[in-house]
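Predict both folds.
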Amino acid sequence: MPVGRIENFLSRIPVLRRVPYRLDVARAETEQARRDLDEALREAKALRAENEFPRDQSDFEQAPLIQWMKSQGHSDLNHVHTWNESTRDDWVADRAATVAPGSRILDVGAGTGPYKNLFAHCVYKSHDFAAYEGYKGDEGTYAEIDYVSDITAIEVDDNSFDAILCTEVLEHVPRPIEALAEMARILRPRGRLFITAPLGSGLHQQPYHFYGGYTPHWYRKFLADFACDVVSIEPNHGYFAHLAQECARFAWNSEKHSQYHGEFADRASHLIGDVLAPYFYALDKKVMIPEFTIGYHVEATKR
């Protein structure tokens, strides 16, 4: 409904209000008022119809806004749901390629060792506390671990490694600042430290999930305290990618809340998961708002 038609409809309201009370008006004026009323009601019905949520799936798909949004986003739902991990993996791979062959590297909190092959040109060692009990007691699967200990007391000498990798671990550590100090202790001077941790995330690997909110200021403050200089702090995408991931999560978990969407449950899941999620993910590449990122990828060197 064009704006002009809406304004025309609203402008007639005073006329409609005075119809029941102006019994002394001329017959012609009364008839004109009734015609105005009929036309205004018809336009009101048309306005409502144009703004009603399409009940037919084909009408929904052909709506101009839906068509335009779909033209802007080209990623499938699975990619939108997993970009956080895939982007982090790419970052680790890029850093691994810059580590000199033969370097000694320790993967702190290595878990299943997903990055071991990236350091095939190095002397790769792994560390973990190897005591993970997951959600509802399901046990995590760990790779062969070289050093099993608390992260704040790794049984190696000072200055033992040329590089240290620690990805998505600090949120699971009761004393993360002490953990950072320990990594600095066992890193040799001019050694490289690669860290990722979430700024925000849902609960996972329970009950070993203690913290979030690892900001650039946190890294700068505590790395400096332990004689490490920040080389780079890169946000893992921004606000709109974060929003896209949550839209994808809405769709992935739709069976848990579909009863609250009435007859539009499937369409709500499709709209938010298949239309809005890719749209927001594509928008993130155009409008970067790093303050609401998932987390940061950090590189530092020891003095």
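Second protein follows, with its predicted structure tokens after the sequence.
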Amino acid sequence: MQFYESSALDSIRESVAYLTEDALLEEKEALIARATVSGQITLFTRTFGRGTDFICHDQTVATNGGAHVIQTFLSEECSEEKQIKGRTARQGDEGSYSMILLDQDLEKFLIHRSHIEDVLQGRSFTAWLTDGLCLTDTIKTVYELLHDRRTALFKTQYEENKNMLNKQKKNMRFR
């Protein structure tokens, strides 16, 4: 993970754990249990956003609003994002969630910094879609912009996959 190895983490590296799919089962369980301890920062790959229960036994964390999850990528699927948000408040516990994204990670969704600035200023923006269509839209929040672009990407991918499947079916009939 780029952030874990960066100098930006130097001053707090002692309190940061990093868990990947390659870790042994015992290590995974220990890091997941430790992730909700006060002062602990744990970095996980996206795999742990689904089906991992982070149960908070630390009274200091619970008193201060529970565990906080920061997602550092825009999920292509809403269901994945909901699962990641759900890691924060398990079984009635409180928790919070935020998303921090890099400009370059938004390029695949055809989102540019100027679009975000336009939304923050309350202006409409123009975006060129992959098929050459021009879209002018007024969006009220940055999250609405992210969701809109994610949905557009999903629809584009769906149509491309459907067309490719239909093409394959035609080719199979003529053999």
